[in-house]
Write a structure and sequence with these properties.
Length: 362
């Protein structure tokens, strides 16, 4: 007679078998090999879920294990062995799959972190100097070879250096076309590099031979030939007995070195407040040689800059005695020259920093 309160071991075995059958289906759905690191990690998580579901505290196996005490003591051994066998099998099957996946993940991670030395490198994009800098360097090279020093100075100036010392007193009509930008403290952005001449003469006295390339500012509306900020180079030579012929010889030599030995220079009388006499200088067109073309507007000549003998008032303002020393000065626009050399019809292109434009000139 069997005790009706006792559980039949067959019932226990069949529940465990049913649970194992479910597990068998589920574990087969987890692939042995994954496509990628990400899917492998997902599979690993699925295995962990199966472990909890079939071996955890709330699993069928755990519940059945608790019920063993209700089985006839003589048959408990078989029922227990059955549960034990399935628990072992489930553990082994999950472990085996997990090992394969972990191996795959390890290899995939190593591969991901390895540098493939056979891949082509990323080519560095070499830069080059701005066309205005290139032009400035060419000009500097020529004047340095003629014995000139290259001077640099501040871009924010007082009225004295920008106007008064250059013989442009308050109310002088020449202040108008040179109108610049002012700060609230009575300082101004220099409207010409001539300010550097005054600083250089004050600092070094006479004799002096220098050029001053740099940025200058004018209150101009930008158009194809004007920009509120542009580049000038200014030259100054002060010594005993300096005359107009020295000026002409120097400018002519500079232009020959710049545009070729056949270049002809001409001077036209002009007016500047800081020189007396004053002259503008042109040179024979480097493109057509003087016969007339688009660049020289069919005149055969290209206007380039202004020059003259330094006004005695300017020498005096810089502390140089005009009774002993005389000198000449000249100035020209670097951007204008770059525009001429490179055939640009709009100087604003030089300041827009568009790499597609700039990379054409080096
Ligand atoms: Zn021409």
């Amino acid at each position: 007679m069997s005790d009706p309160t006792q559980l039949r071991p067959e019932a226990l075995v069949s529940s465990v078998n049913a649970a194992y059958a479910d597990f068998d289906v589920e574990i087969d759905h987890v692939p042995d090999r994954a496509e990628s690191l990400e899917t492998a990690e997902k599979c690993l998580q699925e295995l962990q879920n199966l472990r909890v579901k079939y071996l955890g505290k709330k699993s069928v196996l755990a519940i059945q294990r608790k019920l063993i005490k209700n089985v006839d003591p003589n048959r408990r051994g078989d029922a227990g062995a059955n549960i034990h066998k399935f628990a072992d099998t489930i553990t082994q099957r999950i472990d085996a799959k997990e090992l394969r996946l972990r191996t795959f993940i390890l290899r995939a991670r190593t591969e991901r972190e390895t540098i493939d030395v056979t891949l082509p490198g990323r080519r560095p994009r070499p830069g080059h100097l701005h066309p205005i800098t290139l032009m400035r360097q060419r000009i500097e090279d020529i004047f340095v070879s003629l014995g000139y020093a290259v001077e640099d100075d501040r871009e924010i100036e007082t009225d004295f250096y920008n106007f008064d010392a250059l013989n442009i007193p308050e109310g002088h009509p020449a202040r108008d076309p040179q109108d610049t930008f002012y700060t609230t403290d009575g300082f101004a952005l220099r409207s010409q590099t001539s300010t550097v001449q005054i600083h250089a003469m004050q600092r070094r006295g006479a004799p002096v031979r220098m050029i001053a390339p740099g940025r200058v500012f004018r209150r101009d509306t930008p158009d194809p030939t004007h920009n509120p900020m542009f580049f000038q180079v200014e030259g100054l030579c002060v010594d005993r007995g300096i005359s107009m012929s020295h000026l002409k010889g120097t400018v002519a030599e500079f232009l020959r070195q710049m545009f070729g030995a056949q270049t002809v220079t001409r001077f036209r009388p002009s007016y500047f407040p800081f020189t007396e006499p004053s002259a503008e200088f042109d040179f024979s067109c480097f493109k057509c040689g003087g016969t007339g073309c688009r660049i020289c507007k069919n005149s055969g000549w290209i206007e380039l800059g202004g020059s003259g003998m330094v006004h005695p008032n300017v020498l005096r303002a810089a502390g140089v005695d005009p009774e002993v020393y005389s000198g000449f000065a000249f100035g020209l626009g670097i951007d204008r020259m770059a525009a001429l050399m490179y055939g640009l019809d709009d100087i604003r292109l030089l300041f827009e920093n568009d790499v597609r434009f700039l990379q054409q000139f080096y």
